[in-house]
Amino acid sequence: MTHYRLAMLGFGNVGKSLARLLLAKEQEIASERGLTFSVTGIYTSRHGCALDPAGIDLRKALEAASISELSKLPPASDGMDFVRRVPADVLFENSPVNYDSGQPAVDHIRTALSLGMHAVTANKGPVVHAHRILTDLARAQGKKFYFESAVMDGCPIFSLFRETLPAARLLRFRGVLNSTTNMILSRMEAGDSFETAVAYCQEIGIAETDPSGDIDGWDAAVKVTALANVLMDAELKPQQVIREGIRRLGPGEVLEAKSQNKRWKLVCSAERSGRARSHTPVIARVSPELVGPESPLYRAEGTTSIVQFETDVLGQLTILEENPGPHTTAYGCLADFLNAVSL
Amino acid sequence: MTHYRLAMLGFGNVGKSLARLLLAKEQEIASERGLTFSVTGIYTSRHGCALDPAGIDLRKALEAASISELSKLPPASDGMDFVRRVPADVLFENSPVNYDSGQPAVDHIRTALSLGMHAVTANKGPVVHAHRILTDLARAQGKKFYFESAVMDGCPIFSLFRETLPAARLLRFRGVLNSTTNMILSRMEAGDSFETAVAYCQEIGIAETDPSGDIDGWDAAVKVTALANVLMDAELKPQQVIREGIRRLGPGEVLEAKSQNKRWKLVCSAERSGRARSHTPVIARVSPELVGPESPLYRAEGTTSIVQFETDVLGQLTILEENPGPHTTAYGCLADFLNAVSL
Predict the structure, then answer these.
(1) Is the Cβ pair B322, A334 closer than 8 Å?
(2) A25 catalytic, yes or no?
(3) Which of the residues A32, A331, A343 would you substitute to probe the B interface, choosing the one with the greatest number of B C-beta atoms within 10 Å?
(4) Residue B279 pLDDT exceeds 80
(5) Average of pLDDT values for B257-276?
(6) DSSP alpha helices (H): ranges in chain B?
(7) A324 vs B315: CB contact, 8 Å cut-off?
(8) Does the pLDDT value for residue B81 go beyond 60?
(9) pLDDT band with cut points at 50, 70 and 90 for residue B205
(10) Structure ipTM over 0.85, yes or no
(11) Catalytic residue among A144, A223, A237, A258
(12) Residue B274 confidence (pLDDT) above 80
């Protein structure tokens, strides 16, 4: 049995789902993989911090009004202090996403790797802003920086290319990666106004109070950037993605498309501008497109995500994820942990 | 640089595609993975055999009327003799599939593993008939028995679960896995009679002279068995799959479904009969089903394969493969080789 000490920075929906999943899978992982774990630190920005080298009771942490009740050591003063002081082998970095700089997650992960921890995150910020630096640092440290849940929740995308498609070259991809805009468009097809559709998404918890990050295509642009940088060795910033959101689509356009048996989708895509093998720039785009029933994108309803990959070695490979949620994001983090520590 | 000696048993469409792919990717694999290879043996049942410890020129092998011209050693008398005598680290076993017993491929692979080679195959026979024995033998030898291309060509399915979905439990799956019947049904929707549709499939090379293995659902049943045995720890024989082919579907049924915006698909499925976690038997089935446009299976045209996986940790995950062919099967073999020798 090998034992791993886990640190959780962030204990919101994803962090709590991860805690539940760790509890549910603990015995199975021990018996099938010869691996045990304890959570030695939990940090939240508003509900306290717990540090316990002997291991925190996750059941209690899930029920506690303040995490600090469970601490055996003085609580950390901030996220960086937590990363420096937590006695851990793996950091789960699940602080809120910062689209502009990726901070403070980038610093948290850099520090964790420097201290000899593996780093796992569902946060797109550090992937988009510092993927190469953090991956190089991880390699130099003999550790892993994994981020499966940054795009399409826990559905295997990054690990698909990393683990199952050796010597494959990604030529282009195309997909629907933002569930909020996809749900808004689905609701408008059913007769909602734009405002009612947005309100519905806020009500079910998939849109922010200020939904412009989704509606203007920023979230999608960040996801395209993450995929292109990691899978195609692009060096894009989200600002370089040719980007148009869905604001120009009124109920008129949406219903007219429907009457022609087509659907508006906020399509994310990227491809090399020149010959596949040369190191030409990658052109990435987020924009509303009309798709017909012949496209697998046509069927992506509501929160479904889909991406089509074209490589130099396979025909088109399409991955479709239905019914995502915090529990699937949490699974991606667990999978990253298990992959990071397996040989 | 680590050097691997490769043996190719079978040099038909898949073997030749693999040879072309090895030539095309040789430099890239050397520079990106620090790995070189040479082919030290090629065996065919009707076009001779070549053995050369110094490496066979694959370009010449692809053009030779008889492979034997290229041999530096006396040719092998049969497949078993070839496996025993070829000086190799990896065996690509691509002999014709034998649905009844998996032989002689099972013996070829067993011998190769016993002699310390990794074994890679696109052949469903040994997977269905001897997956557990061969996998256990490989483990005992510190080698790998991989067979990605046995189902859905080179599209990652087995490696998806092996490498990217740790601690996930497959509860059920459902898909369209036989391209011949799918093409026949697609052609009948376009107005062909059953006989004309079969003749078309024979003409484009996806149906055998005796197409009953496809039409009666045997090929699909073998694929369901392979997926269920490997991914769900089932211990099924193809004969235990509840099986109905497409013979009862005439143009009348097919066109009537079309008029209702539905399609007949030969659906493959398997699920545990009881609670997911207990070791209850897996019930597997191949039968024609009417599917509507709400199902991703609806869109599977012609040679497209699709499978939907439901696990205990993710929402539904669907994999769709378009435009397969010998080159994608060959890629699965190359991926298996690279995965087998990577740490």
Answers:
(1) no
(2) no
(3) A331
(4) no
(5) 89
(6) 13-33, 58-63, 79-85, 105-114, 124-141, 158-159, 179-189, 194-203, 212-215, 218-232, 251-259, 326-341
(7) yes
(8) yes
(9) confident
(10) yes
(11) A223
(12) no
Q: What is the mean pLDDT of each run of 10 residues along chain A (343 residues)?
A: 97 96 97 97 95 98 95 96 98 92 96 98 96 97 98 96 95 96 95 95 90 95 97 94 96 94 97 70 96 91 94 94 93 98 83
Six-digit token pair at B325?
Answer: 């062919």
Over the stretch B40-53, which tens digit does the pLDDT of each residue have? 999 999 999 999 99
- Best of B32, B318, B337 to substitute, by most chain A Cβ atoms within 10 angstroms, is B318
Chain B contact for A25, CB < 8 A? Answer: yes
Res B276: pLDDT: 52
The 3 state secondary structure assigned to chain A is CEEEEEEEECCCHHHHHHHHHHHHHHHHHHHHHCEEEEEEEEECCCCCEEECCCCCCHHHHHHCCCHHHHCCCCCCCCHHHHHHHCCCCEEEECCCCCCCCCCCHHHHHHHHHHCCCEEEECCHHHHHHHHHHHHHHHHHHCCCEECHHHCCCCCCCHHHHHHHCCCCCEEEEEEECCHHHHHHHHHHHCCCCHHHHHHHHHHCCCCCCCCHHHHCCHHHHHHHHHHHHHHCCCCCCHHHCEECCCCCCCHHHHHHHHHCCCEEEEEEEEEECCCCCCCCCEEEEEEEEEECCCCHHHHCCCCCEEEEEEECCCCCEEEEECCCCHHHHHHHHHHHHHHHHCC
Q: How far is CA B301 from CA B6, B190, B213, B326, in A?
A: 36, 12, 20, 19
Our CA-based measurement puts residue A155 at a distance from the nearest CA of chain B, in whole angstroms, of: 7
DSSP letter, residue B48: -
pLDDT of A343 = 65
- Minimal CA separation from B176 to chain A, in Å: 14
Between CA B26 and CA B41 the distance in angstroms is: 17
Q: Residue B226: pLDDT band by 50, 70, 90 thresholds?
A: very high
B167 in contact with A at a CB cutoff of 8 Å? yes
Angle among Cα B249, B253, B259 to the nearest 5 degrees reads 145
